Each structure stands twice: as structure tokens, then as C-alpha cells.
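Summary for the steering committee. One of the milestones for this cycle was to obtain a three-dimensional model of the protein with beta-D-ribofuranose bound, which we needed before selecting residues for the alanine scan. The sequence and ligand used are listed below.
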Amino acid sequence: MPKIPVIIDTDPGQDDAFAILLALGEPSLEVLGLTTVAGNMGLTQTTDNARRIVELAGRGDIPVHAGSPRPLVRKPHPVPEIHGATGIDGWDWAPARSGAAVGHAVDFIIDTVLHHPDPVTLIALGPQTNIALALRRAPEIAKSIAGIVFMGGGYFEGGNMTPAAEYNILVDPEAARIVLGAGVPITAVPIDCTHRAPAPVNWSATLAAHGTEVMRACAGMMEFFERYGNAKHGTPSRPLHDAIAVGALLWPELFTGELCPVDVECAGELTTGMTVVDWLRQTGKPDNCLWLNGCVDPAELYRRMEVALAGLGRCAAAPHGSAEM
Ligand code: BDR
Ligand code: CA
């Protein structure tokens, strides 16, 4: 089976880390590179985190290109209260052995999309600043992109940062609007969908039981990631939003949704960052987005994730400070 070539644009984040590891562990995907953006943390930190994650997986060969240090027109909006001081708290990470690859993320996206022999899929797991800049600088890439799968937004579920806005869209609504208007096939994985797919309760124990370095890191991150959300929402477990977006690309049969017109509110007094989904076709605008709103089998989704993660980096990364092979 030919692999699906992907670029992952990311702001790790524990759930970004799971998404990246899932993509690396899944044989049907070919990860061409990671591009980083300011989001959950500042750009220096998200770039360093991305390096640590690929190295943990034994895939230090994957280039990580640093991108935009701030949203298009707004101020950065880091959230250490959710993700911890590093963004990927919960594990004693080894320092990254290498830094970012030469070349800006936006250049990497444009060059790769234009020159890769097969159409490339972009997976957007943070504010969409880099992708919007790439589409603005080189609009011709739109026809060579196989599709964009993004985690972000919420309509039926409201927002998780304001009553109307989800984090990734709130941080850079102008960028999301550019992306949605670019004429590229888009799949949105909003909280309407991810909130239907919480992780199994106490999943961290299941992960830790595998005993590999990657799984122990995942268990630690999962435990940390769940603490804030469970306390805030009174839930017994949390959805790994960004990993679910990769799951939606891999296993569309596990999800429900509908193709419809979607736009972003950029100037609302109460609703800035809201993804406005024309579910009942009021606007007459063309369909631009497959809007996922459900997961038919969350247990199966996390089972498949577990299988992919379990195969990773079995002898790749020694624990921090240890001489283990
Ligand atoms: C999104 O916000 C970020 O904090 C997560 O990494 C995820 O991409 C969920 O709303
Ligand atoms: Ca993210």
C-alpha cells in the first residue's frame, strides 16, 4: 500500500505529542517533516518539544522546521495552566540532541507541497498561522495539497476557551479563515467530535503496562494532561484532541460528519474565534469543509492508537540520565 505523505504543523502540547507519535507509529503514513508554531507554548519551546518527541520515537531523522512566533495579527496566547511549564509536562524528557532544521516552516511547506511527487496532506494541530502564510505566499500550492485535516473549532459544543471559541481557532482566527477559504479539501476535527471520544478511563495505566520508553512517556503525559481538564469539566477522562485528528485521517470509518460551509468569526464582541458552521444551509455559500461531529467507536479508536504507539522506539531512546540502550 502506498503511504500517505503528511506534514504535521504543531504546537506540542501533550495531545500534539500523542498525535505525532501516532503518525510515526502508523505504517500507512509517511511523515515528511514537522513544522512548529507558537500556540500552547512559545515557538522556541514548541520547536524543542517537537524535536524531543521525534527523538523519543527513534525518528530524529525527521526534520522539524520552526515557523511563526506569533499569530498573524494577535498576541501569542500560551496556556501553561493546561499543558504545564514545558507544554509536554508529565515526563522527564531527555534534552533534544538536535535543533530545528534549516529553513522556515512556511518555506518547507511550500517547497514540499510543490516538489513532492504525490499530493501532500497537511495535518494542523495548532493555530493555523504557518499554513495561512504558506497559502498567502504561494496560493498555487492549494491545488497540490491533497487535503488539510485540522483539529480546531466547535459549533454544537461551543468553545473550550470562551463560550464560542476553541483554542486553536481563538488564537489565530484570521489564519483559520484564510485556510478555510483557500479552496483546499478540508476535514475539521472540532471539539464537537473530540468530546465524543474521551480516552478510556485510566488509560495511562494501560499505556504504562507496555513498559517501553515511549509508552511510559505517553502514560506520564496522559496523566498530566487529564488533570486540568477533568478538574475543569468534572469528567473521568479527557479526549486527546490532536491525536483524534490523526485518527480521523487514518480511520475515517470511525467518524461521522457532514460536508458544509464553514467560516470563522474574527470581529465578534462575544464570539471572536467561533467556527460558524452553516449546518442548515442558510448562507448559500459553497461547501468547504467536512465537519466531523462524532466518533462511532471511541474504544476502538484508542485501541488502534495503543497498537501504533506500542510499536514505537522499542530500543530507541534511553531514559533521561540513563545509559540504557
Ligand atoms: C487544542 O488546543 C490545544 O491546547 C491542544 O493542543 C489542541 O490542539 C484543543 O482545543
Ligand atoms: Ca495542539
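Key point for the committee: The CA atoms of residues 5 and 30 lie 5 Å apart.
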